[in-house]
Amino acid sequence: MADPARGRYFVVMRRFPVLVPMSQSDSAAASTSACAALFAGYPLKAHNTFGFDVRAQLACLIEHEEQLLAAVRDPRVAGLPRLVLGGGSNVVLTGDFAGLVLLVALRGRRVVREDQDAWYVEAAGGEPWHEFVAWTLAQGLPGLENLALIPGTVGAAPIQNIGAYGLEMCERFASLRAIELSTGEAVELDAQACRFGYRDSFFKQEGRGRFVITSVTFRLPKAWQPRAGYADLARELAAQGHAGSAGKADGAGLQPTAQAIFDAVVAVRRAKLPDPLELGNAGSFFKNPVIEAAQFDALKRREPDVVSYPQPDGRVKLAAGWLIDRCGWKGHAMGAAAVHDRQALVLVNRGGASGAEVLALAQAIQRDVLEKFGVELESEPVCL
C-alpha cells in the first residue's frame, strides 16, 4: 500500500534541503557520536491535520530509533524546546515553533506472541492508526475495529487514550516502549504506569513533552465479543443486516463480525466527520464533560432532552456536541475558523485560518456553554 504521509515527508525535504551548519565546537562534540540530519525553517502544513501554515525552526525526520537518539544528543539542539509530531491530529499550532520538531515516521507491525487468551501485536509509533487497525483485521485479529478511522498514529493513541463507539484504547493496551528525550534512555511502561483516563494519560500530565513513544503492544482477546451498542453504529449495522447491539444475534442467528463493525464505524464517521485532507480539522475538539449526579438532575429539569450517559461511578457524561449545538454554534464561523455544519464537536479550517483563530473560536464556545449550562468544556487537542 502506498504511504502518502511518507511521500509528503520526502517531497518537502527535497524542496527544503537546508542543513543546519555546525560550529567548530559542535563538530568536535559530534565527532564521537552520530549527528542528526536537521532541516531549518521546515514547513509543518502537511504535518498537522488542521493544515495550519506554520514552520519549525528545526525539524528532524525519525524513521529509525538511531535517528531519534542522534537528534536528542545533537549539540546543535541543546536547550531548544522540542515538539513530537506524528500525524499532527491532536495539536493546534498557533504559530511557528521556535525549537526542534521531531517528525516520527517509525514503521513496522508484527504479532509478537500469543497465549491461551490473547494475541499480542506490536506496532511502531509512526504507523498510521487506521491502517494498523485494518491490518489487524486482515490478520484475523479482532479487537480494535471500533477505533477505525481515528486520525493520527499508533504512538499518539496512548497519549490521548483514544476511544470511540464503546471502546477505549486502554482496554486493548499491553505496554509501550518510549525514549526519554532528556536522557535518550529507553523505557518500557505498562498500563498502570501510563495512568490512562478519559482522553488522558501520564503523557498529557507529568510526562508531557518528555517522551517519544517508539512502539506500542496491544493485547487482542481471543474470546472476542462485538461492541455495537451506540445508536449510530447499531443503525448502520442494521442497515447492513447485522445485529444492532453487542452480544445479540440478528435474524439469521449471527452476531456482527469484527469486519462488519469496522465497516460500519467507517461509514458512520465518514457521514458525520469531514476528511482532514479536504477540510482541515482535528476530529472531536472537545471532550464530553462528566458532571456530578446532582448537577445533572438540575440540568435535566431545565433541559429534559439533554443527551447523557450514566457512568459507573454515579456521575453522568454529557454529549458536548449537543451542548454546543444548543448554544447555536453548529455551522457558525469566526473568520476562516468554523464549527462543522454536521457535527458541532468538530472545528474546521475553511481555508487560511490560523491556529489562533481556531483557538479563539473554541474559547468563545466554551464561554457560551459555561454561561448557559454551567458546564466547562475541555479541549482534546494540545494548543501550542
How would you describe this structure to a colleague?
With 384 residues, the chain is of the alpha+beta class. It has helices at residues 4-15, 24-30, 65-73, 129-138, 157-160, 191-194, 231-240, 258-272, 293-302, 320-326, 355-373, and strands spanning 39-43, 55-62, 82-85, 91-92, 97-104, 109-114, 118-124, 163-164, 167-168, 173-180, 186-190, 211-221, 280-284, 290-291, 308-310, 316-318, 333-334, 337-339, 346-349, 382-383. The protein has 4 domains: 4-104, 2-Layer Sandwich (Uridine Diphospho-n-acetylenolpyruvylglucosamine Reductase, domain 2), CATH 3.30.43.10; 109-221, Uridine Diphospho-n-acetylenolpyruvylglucosamine Reductase, domain 3, CATH 3.30.465.10; 231-272, no CATH class; 280-383, UDP-N-acetylenolpyruvoylglucosamine reductase, C-terminal domain (Uridine Diphospho-n-acetylenolpyruvylglucosamine Reductase, domain 1). A 5-stranded antiparallel β-sheet has the order 6-7-12-10-11. A 4-stranded mixed β-sheet has the order 1-2-5-3, with helices on both faces. It has a 4-stranded antiparallel β-sheet with strand order 13-19-18-17, with helices on one face. The chain is globular, with a radius of gyration of 22 Å. It starts with a helix and ends with a strand. It catalyses: UDP-N-acetyl-alpha-D-muramate + NADP(+) = UDP-N-acetyl-3-O-(1-carboxyvinyl)-alpha-D-glucosamine + NADPH + H(+). Belongs to the MurB family. It is found in: Cytoplasm.
